[in-house]
Inverse folding.
């Protein structure tokens, strides 16, 4: 095992000298901590598609840096030509994955910089794109810390916490969303007993959350996805924290496949089920969860990946949606950087955005 502690490394960064996107290759974790420096658009898009960088906020930050790097390479001083090539680069990165709205949120924010500054020289626009990408990255750290503080107010020292997939530091720049309360609690000397669902088929829970929690010195237990009910029945779980890839205006939340099953179990056992969502993950243009586009992944990720040999008969059908939607009535609260939203979410999420707007005007 590589001795580098991933908690000391930001998950996504910009190397200013090399003009490269810097990420930890998450497909190699936990066995190897390999840092990748990517400069080519094909490599950046592929890193997102293959989940070398993954998790909604981290994907957004990677795309913002990626499209800035693309803009640097556009060889023209004519605004109209620049805009066209910038938009082509934006669309290319946007096509990497469909569910995490942060990808589109970050790319749209970058595009807005280009649109708002059409009167400026192209070289100045590129500088402004740099500043925006850096700000999106810095903002992610502040947002996650704030979500962590709100989340921490809902739990107490010694609690058992169950999580699904990885919505930790590895899914953001720092801290994470669903695991941020644990990291911040650790900084304050608190301790929790964390259960990480392994999260089939790509094992983000076992490979990433468990690794991250063990690296932080947290008492961590990996369970197979089908063990969650038993662990809850045993009385070992006082709260469930998960992340999300897109929240609809009514509070329905898409997250890693299997999350909705955990939400249903939580309701059955009377355990609070918290969804941690930066406002960049809340899509007020989508009314209900059923309208959230759900990515389907290739069959081999189910039948072959991680096994020594193929574990399914040749010719069998495979259905592999990467995300599912937990309906709002299953969600105890949605924790954002502007506070904790509770049902009815159609109202409380609007209030969250009103607070965001107020903060922006200050
Ligand atoms: O397919 P992944 O690994 O990108 O899925 C990640 C998740 O489902 C996370 O829970 C979500 O993106 C929130 S990350 C803070």
């Amino acid at each position: 095992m590589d001795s580098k502690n991933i908690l000391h490394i930001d998950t996504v960064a910009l190397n200013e000298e090399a003009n490269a996107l810097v990420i930890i290759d998450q497909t190699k974790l936990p066995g190897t901590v390999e840092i990748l420096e990517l400069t080519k658009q094909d490599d950046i898009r592929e890193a997102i598609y293959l989940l070398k960088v993954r998790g909604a906020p981290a994907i957004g930050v990677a795309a913002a840096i990626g499209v800035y790097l693309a803009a640097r390479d556009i060889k023209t001083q004519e605004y109209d030509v620049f805009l066209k090539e910038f938009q082509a680069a934006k669309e290319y990165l946007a096509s990497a994955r469909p569910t995490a709205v942060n990808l589109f949120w970050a790319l749209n924010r970058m595009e807005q910089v280009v649109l708002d500054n059409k009167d400026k020289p192209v070289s100045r626009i590129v500088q402004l794109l740099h500043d925006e990408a850096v700000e999106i990255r810095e903002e992610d750290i502040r947002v996650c810390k704030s979500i962590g503080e709100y989340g921490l107010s809902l739990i107490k020292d010694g609690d058992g916490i169950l999580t699904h997939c990885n919505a930790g530091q590895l899914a953001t720049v720092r801290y994470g969303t669903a695991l941020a309360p644990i990291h911040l609690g650790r900084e304050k000397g608190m301790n929790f007993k964390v259960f990480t669902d392994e999260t089939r088929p790509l094992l983000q829970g076992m490979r990433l959350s468990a690794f991250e929690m063990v690296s932080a010195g947290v008492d961590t237990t990996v369970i197979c996805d089908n063990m969650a009910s038993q662990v809850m029945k045993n009385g070992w779980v006082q709260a469930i924290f998960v992340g999300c890839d897109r929240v609809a205006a009514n509070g329905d939340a898409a997250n890693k496949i299997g999350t909705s099953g955990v939400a249903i179990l939580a309701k059955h056992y009377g355990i609070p089920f918290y969804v941690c969502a930066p406002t960049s993950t809340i899509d007020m243009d989508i009314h209900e969860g059923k309208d959230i586009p759900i990515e389907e992944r290739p069959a081999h990720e189910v039948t072959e990946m991680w096994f020594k040999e193929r574990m399914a008969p040749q010719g069998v059908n495979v259905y592999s949606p990467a995300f599912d939607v937990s309906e709002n009535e299953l969600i105890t609260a949605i924790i954002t950087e502007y506070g904790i939203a509770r049902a009815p979410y159609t109202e409380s999420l609007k209030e969250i955005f009103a607070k965001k707007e107020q903060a922006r005007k200050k």
Observations:
- The longest strand covers residues 20-24.
- The chain has two domains: 3-144, 148-361.
- The chain has a mean pLDDT of 97.
- The longest helix spans residues 122-152.
